[in-house]
Every structure is written in structure tokens, then in C-alpha cells.
């Protein structure tokens, strides 16, 4: 039953989906249900056949005004005697538990059966995805929810800074270091460093 490609899984999943379709067919925005896993009854989610737990998604359109409590009430009120959902219980799970948002660039918040991704500090959302954010490219910084060119990293300023650093290097006189090798009766000479400093 845990093998999602098995005939037994498919048949049981189809029965569960058909029962849920019947329950929610009158609800505005109901799009369908998907059975993700069938587990032994140690878990507590939607109980399907005796001893089986179904982990599933009940999907509504984003424009639907249904709330999480409404989904649970509808399920509990529409169970029938001797049918698949008889005695079924429903335990909602946190949608963020499956990490739908990029964990490196955003935070996930879940409420009323929906989730949203909020950008981390110094990151912003793009038109390409609402599940991940991006940082400003090199040479710019994040300011007032947008990337602005950073004068410290502009090409012209970068060139001037490099030239200035080179000038500074040549302006400073380095101490001269002389290397002396002396035998002193040993097989290997030792080295002595004499420093002659002249900063005049």
C-alpha cells in the first residue's frame, strides 16, 4: 500500500478522491484532491479503509474564500454510514513543512490552507517566482526595496581606488632587508635578517 505505483495504492487513492469529490463538489473553488501517501494507522490524518491513513491535499482555487475550518467541518458533516469516509478524522498539516519556499532566500508562513513566501533581509522577489527571492547583483546594494548602484563598487570609482592604492604603495618606503649567510662551523648556514629602516 505504501508503493504509490502499485495497483492497490491507485485503487484506494481513487476511492478516497471520489469520496472527497462528493463531499466538496458544492464548495466554491474546489479543484480536486490528491492522495500523496497511504500509511499504517500509527499516523493521525484522514483515515481511509480500516488501518490506513491517507495523507492528501484538498485543493481549492486561490480565489476561493473557503477557510481551513470550513474544510474540516464539511468533511466531518458529510461522512456517511458504511462508506469510505465513515468515522474519518481530518488533521491539517503545516504547508510550510514541505519547504515550498526557497529556504536560503525566504521564509514560509502558512495560514488557512495557503502559504506565502517572504523575502529575507536584503533580498527581493522577482517576476519569475513567488517562491524564492534574490540578492542584489555585484556592484549594487539593497535600498528601499530595490537594488541601487553602489558608488563604492562602480567601475570608474573602482579604477580610481586601484590607482590610489598603487600610489600609496609606492609612496611608502619599505625597510630594506639584507640576507647574510654565515657558516660558523655548521654544515648549514644560518640566516640573519638585518633591517635598515629609512622613512625620511
From TrEMBL:
GO terms for cellular component: plasma membrane. It is found in: Cell membrane. Keywords: Cell membrane, Disulfide bond, EGF-like domain, Glycoprotein, Membrane, Repeat, Signal. SUPFAM superfamilies: SEA domain. Coiled coil: none annotated. InterPro entries: SEA_dom, SEA_dom_sf. Signal peptide: none annotated. Residues 1-102 form the SEA domain. PANTHER family: HEART DEVELOPMENT PROTEIN WITH EGF-LIKE DOMAINS 1 (PTHR24037), MUCIN-13 (PTHR24037:SF10). This is Uncharacterized protein LOC102206264. The gene is LOC102206264.
